[in-house]
């Protein structure tokens, strides 16, 4: 493929095509945009795209209904053993008592991930007479309430659901989040549907849950490895119904993503601002804006979600001399990409924010002093500056801190008291996680504080739980 495509300016792919660093290198810098005709862009090497100055755009809404309909189809066919019964009759058997199913009406469905697909599944399930609850730490509570769905905690969703349908993106936080611990909290006999990403389920843990009867049935459209090996024990399990990543495979959805991605690619090729056109003086602030937003959205996890964000730029430049469109696009990117499968770039940032009901208001603080430096600081809920060309976090809420935003950070709110720093250090040390710096921002002695630790390695979820 690499020889043919080296004469192209744009590439459009589905989830099945891996756009690797080698593909970008084979273009010799000619490739200007990669279009992902779908939602998830986990098949595109984004750091290679950035290094090669290539925009990546996707079509995040055109297959939503198709995916939701597929989830409902799998839910209903699993509950009534359609796939297993079909195979049985085709094999010349007539086993009516073997395939007695369960009803959906008045049963509780937990929708995990209340975004475009999850909320559509919830609407469909309510029309089928199901009681629907949702778990999504970043979705505004009123989004679920608006359609009569109760937002609940992860544990409450697991313990009260008869059916669980997964609709969150595959991120470091959601990878294998349905593991032995999660299955142990579920109601015995629960039924699970996954049309999100295979990686959110720990396959071995699912197998143990199926064999122990905790999980009565599973219906899977997505897999950790696609196509899964023929002898994959989960795929071959008699209690499992499987389809080959068909969530978006309707004529209507494929036409929809085709039109949307063509428009996005043309828009990108004509785009006002391309990544490579970034004014070099703003470059360090681009990274700062995105990192502050990624941090801010995680700080509100479990709250009512992010609906409106106020951004304050402190600068000695007059407003007319400082174009913040790019900074706002990067803030949108940080706020949405951290919790979603949508890929945000300069071309789609405004549209994506509006589509998710995210309001970003900007204000300026005009500083005295030399306009040499384009910006003194950017404040979201967190505040940061650029020091020696690197993004720095300087405030979390009302707490002053001073930490580099390079690499991974752990932030802990606490009442500052002796031994806490040592305890956090030893929990991380037990996991061979190297702490490259630690700082505590506090208002006064023995008052509320924020401890910020920079770490070289990603600590385990268990370690973070212990620190919490
Ligand atoms: N099987 C298919 O063919 C198919 C089709 C469409 C979408 N998908 C996949 O389904 C997933 C959802 O798609 P979408 O368009 O609804 O995306 P979306 O971004 O609209 O929704 C994802 C939701 O997950 C939530 N989320 C993030 N982290 C979470 C966590 N830890 N716990 C609970 N919720 C969390 C986000 O807040 C967001 O609301 C994506 O992974 C997408 O790739 C698959
Ligand atoms: O992420 C998506 O949009 C879905 O998984 C569909 O992927 P596809 O483009 O391979 O159908």
From TrEMBL:
It holds the Pfam family 2-Hacid_dh_C. Keywords: NAD, Oxidoreductase. It is an enzyme of class 1 (oxidoreductase). Residues 417-467 form the ACT domain. The keyword NAD applies. Coiled coil: none annotated. The keyword Disulfide bond does not apply. SUPFAM superfamilies: ACT-like, Formate/glycerate dehydrogenase catalytic domain-like, NAD(P)-binding Rossmann-fold domains, Serine metabolism enzymes domain. Residues 3-278 form the D-isomer specific 2-hydroxyacid dehydrogenase catalytic domain. Pathway: Amino-acid biosynthesis; L-serine biosynthesis; L-serine from 3-phospho-D-glycerate: step 1/3. Its EC number is 1.1.1.95. Residues 72-247 form the D-isomer specific 2-hydroxyacid dehydrogenase NAD-binding domain. Residues 282-368 form the D-3-phosphoglycerate dehydrogenase ASB domain. It catalyses: (2R)-3-phosphoglycerate + NAD(+) = 3-phosphooxypyruvate + NADH + H(+). Gene3D superfamilies: 3.30.70.260, D-3-phosphoglycerate dehydrogenase, domain 3 (3.30.1330.90), NAD(P)-binding Rossmann-like Domain (3.40.50.720). One of its GO terms (cellular component) is chloroplast stroma. GO terms for molecular function: NAD binding; phosphoglycerate dehydrogenase activity. CDD domains: PGDH_4 (cd12173). Belongs to the D-isomer specific 2-hydroxyacid dehydrogenase family. This is phosphoglycerate dehydrogenase. It comes from Rubroshorea leprosula.
